[in-house]
Write the structure tokens for this entry.
Amino acid sequence: MLNIVLFGPPGAGKGTQAEKLIAKYNLCHLSTGDIFRANIKGETELGKLAKSYMDKGELVPDSVTIAMLESEVNKNPTAQGFIFDGFPRTTPQAEALAAFLNSKATDVSVMLALDVEEQELINRLLLRGKNSGRADDSDESIIANRIKVYNEQTAVVADFYAAQGKFEKIVGKGGIEAVFDKLCKAIDKYKQVTSN
Ligand code: AMP
């Protein structure tokens, strides 16, 4: 299986690139942010809980997020692999994902980390907020908090994969197609060494 963790700060282009990657590699796209937003729209209990954190730009607690992610993976038993987008965002999430995938005789193949400078992230998020109406993209103080949370709680997850030789930094500037090409080159390299 090819299991990719698509990583990077909010606004780095994870969602855009994930859409292109799933089409090319025939993978199942799991975006925890999208799943939370679908739950908010459906007014589920999970949605209500998630909203209380998302509205502030904080992370939804690990226990809730991990259980949800595992259940989504289990809903796709025939998938040839997954793109995890926006997950893991903490080291306990990364550890839980490893244990969960190992129990299915597979593992994360590689973390691809999109690297974009901070001012560019803010500009992109504000533009997305205007176009999509996403509340957490429309308010500069919430955006600032999301970037802070990323730097303080999420960036460290890269070390977890780097320690296993599964970390690739991808410079996220130069246009969507140029970044996509870089991602594909990195994936093709790891595909050759992924045996299960
Ligand atoms: P995203 O769509 O990935 O930018 O996520 C939007 C929001 O959903 C985040 O700011 C968090 O509040 C929440 N969220 C998404 N994924 C996670 C995760 N893996 N762990 C905790 N909270 C998450």
In short: Residues 98 and 107 are 6 Å apart (CA to CA). The longest strand covers residues 2-7. The beta strands are 2-7, 28-31, 81-85, 110-115, 167-171. The chain has a mean pLDDT of 95.
